[in-house]
Write a structure and sequence with these properties.
The protein is an alpha+beta fold. Among the domains are: 29 residues; 180 residues, Biosynthetic peptidoglycan transglycosylase-like (Penicillin binding protein transpeptidase fold, Orthogonal Bundle), CATH 1.10.3810.10; 78 residues, 3-Layer(aba) Sandwich (Beta-lactamase). 45% of the residues lie in helices and 11% in strands. The strands form 5 sheets. A 5-stranded mixed beta sheet has the order 2-1-5-11-12, covered by helices on one side. A hairpin with a 4-residue loop joins strand 6 and strand 7. Helix 3 packs across helix 9.
Length: 618
């Protein structure tokens, strides 16, 4: 009896422990759906898409591909026969299962067991979507099980229509082409809505085995598979037998085309500008300015780079100011001139009325994403800086006229004693002639009278990105800077002369929109006064005299509304001319990437180049 009582007590204690355990476990109980939802994470799906660049005529001139070349379309845009064709050959019971076709799985399991290898997949459309989005293409049972679990979750979260839309946009069509719409443009150079039944079936044939059915290398295989697609469609009753026969008789003509990539000089710059636009609009620029050390700046820059890639991968539409005719002329003239001279160069054309960059040239033999000399090459501006840093500030501060005189005698300031290029060392000239003939001693004398700090304050409006405190020295009056400025920066600054002394930055991007036309980014600059209109009017006359009788007279352009300024650096390592007419401001720079003397060139090479471009602007 004692043994019995001891046994009962122990049994009762164990029973109570068991009950307590059940109660505790019940608190953590999950249904199958809950367990799958916790283990299989399916967040909002973001497919990488192509982004598009448009010129001023709303024509696409460049397509920015990401990791996958994809033109995404909504379900409503997918032709019904495309859906029917995929259902016929890939998953005829798509609307009946919940992600997995059990019957097909059993059949595949038996076939694979007999073969002792994975020979049959039995993947539904949902499973293929799961594989394309979340998994890889390993031929293992572990991957297959994951595919099943993801498929179940996809069916719980998305409608059948959503899954079909994802499938049509993610399936691979060989040769780097993803999605049916992309394939339609790539292989037939037209949208899917314009495809014939034969062409639809031909494309639907490819994804079953993209390498085996590659239309460019194995078109015979593709045509055999096309026949199977059409027969399956006829068997299901989605097309009539005579439609099938007619489609089989149609001859397939492939017109394989790579994504549009015209005007790489302009397209490359637009991508640079887009990153700057994102940086400003989303606060990265202000974060960089507040960063306390290099490590922090690098981290912010990495975040900006990731954000930039995200925006491009989202499939944005970038509307620009590109003028195709001007850009083509600029490219042709520049390539010919620079190749003949064996020299590098950069140029920019700005519509100063609208503050739009209409054309840009990044260098001789430029390839997309190369070093862009128009926007990335910082060079000494030479005397081209004089109207902005010397004459404009002096005349505005001192209320001087172009007829006032200045000495061109030798001068030394803080040990800096420049000479005049012409060798002239005595006398005085009007301010107009001092600029027209680019007397260096006069420039140093004028900036000294204005004051370095005051003169440099006028450059703030132009936002030159690499002017530093060390630049506030007398050599700057002749273009001697630590880094200098880019051809695009200097050309943009010269638009002030065509806007009554008011300045507004010039951009290539007008708007960035999503696929639905919603504006995501756009510039919103305002005009900023630099100097008085009276000062500007006098400067325009003086710059016209540079062309009429001064250092640019060899161009032989006799027009009162054409003006500009030459620039030459020490040992002739850089040659500049920035000028304008009624509509456009055009800047050119000649040099070598590793600065060397250009004395082997004609002394007026930069002026000849500018003049050639100028006559194409009319």
């Amino acid at each position: 009896m004692t043994t019995g009582y001891v046994f009962m007590v122990c049994f009762f204690s164990l029973f109570m422990i068991f009950i307590v355990g059940i109660v505790n476990e019940s608190e953590e109980f999950q249904t199958v759906e809950q367990a799958l939802e916790e283990g299989i994470k399916i967040d909002t799906i973001h497919l990488t898409q192509n982004s598009y660049l448009y010129d001023r005529n709303e024509e696409v001139f460049s397509v920015i591909q990401n990791e996958e070349n994809r033109k995404y379309i909504e379900f409503e845009q997918i032709p019904n026969k495309v859906i029917q064709a995929f259902l016929a050959v890939e998953d005829q019971y798509f609307y009946e299962h919940e992600g997995v076709d059990i019957g097909a799985v059993i059949r595949a399991f038996i076939v694979n067991a007999r073969a002792q290898a994975i020979e049959e997949g039995a993947s539904t459309i949902t499973q293929q979507v799961a594989r394309n989005l979340f998994l890889n293409h390993e031929q293992t049972y572990n991957r297959k099980l994951s595919e099943v679990l993801y498929s179940y979750q996809l069916e719980q979260k998305y409608s059948k229509q959503d899954i079909l839309e994802l499938y049509v946009n993610t399936v691979y069509f060989s040769n780097g082409v993803y999605g049916f719409e992309t394939a339609s443009h790539a292989y037939f150079n037209k949208p899917s809505q314009e495809l014939s039944l034969a062409e639809i079936a031909f494309l639907v044939a490819i994804p079953a085995n993209p390498s085996h059915y590659d239309p460019l290398t194995n078109i015979e295989n593709t045509l055999l598979r096309q026949k199977t697609v059409l027969e399956r469609m006829a068997e299901r009753g989605v097309i009539a037998v005579d439609e099938k026969e007619e489609a089989l008789e149609e001859e397939i003509h492939i017109q394989f085309t790579q994504p549009i990539d015209s005007f790489p000089h302009y397209a490359s710059y637009v991508e640079q500008e887009l990153k700057d636009l994102i940086s400003i609009k989303e606060g990265f620029q202000s974060q960089l300015q507040r960063a306390e050390n290099q490590e922090e700046r690098e981290e912010i820059q990495q975040h900006l780079n990731r954000r930039f890639k995200e925006v491009l991968a989202s499939g944005v539409h970038i509307h620009t100011s590109l003028h195709p005719r001007i850009q083509s002329s600029l490219n042709n003239i520049s390539n010919r001139r620079l190749s003949n001279w064996n020299v590098q160069g950069a140029a920019a054309v700005i519509d100063h009325a609208s503050h739009q960059i209409v054309a840009i040239y990044g260098g001789n033999h430029f390839q997309k994403y190369d070093f862009h000399r128009a926007s990335q090459a910082y060079r000494q501006p030479g005397s081209a800086i004089k109207p902005l840093l010397v004459f404009g500030p002096y005349m505005n501060e001192k209320n001087k006229s172009l007829h006032d005189r200045v000495s061109i005698h030798p001068i030394c300031r803080d040990g800096y004693c420049p000479d005049n290029a012409s060798g002239t060392r005595t006398g005085s000239v009007t301010l107009s002639d001092a600029l027209a003939y680019s007397y260096n001693t006069a420039a140093v004398r004028l900036i000294d009278q204005t004051g370095l700090d005051t003169a440099f304050s006028y450059l703030d409006a132009f936002h030159f990105s690499r002017i530093v405190q060390e630049d506030k020295r007398y050599p700057a009056a002749l273009g001697g800077f630590t880094y200098g400025m880019t051809p695009l920066e200097l050309t943009s600054a010269f638009t002030v002369f065509s806007n009554d002394g008011m300045y507004r930055p010039s951009y290539a991007i007008e708007q960035v929109t999503d696929k639905d036309g919603n504006v995501l980014y756009e510039w919103s600059p305002s005009l900023q006064p630099v100097w008085e209109k009276e000062t500007n009017d006098q400067l325009r006359y003086m710059l016209n005299q540079v062309v009429m009788k001064g250092t640019a007279r060899s161009m032989n352009i006799r027009h009162q509304n054409v003006g500009g300024k030459t620039g030459t650096t020490n040992e002739t390592k850089d040659l500049w001319f920035i000028g304008y007419n009624d509509r456009y401001t055009l800047g050119v720079w000649l040099g070598q990437d590793n600065p060397t003397s250009l004395r082997y060139l004609p002394s007026t090479a930069h002026l000849q180049w500018w003049k050639d471009i100028y006559f194409t602007l009319e």
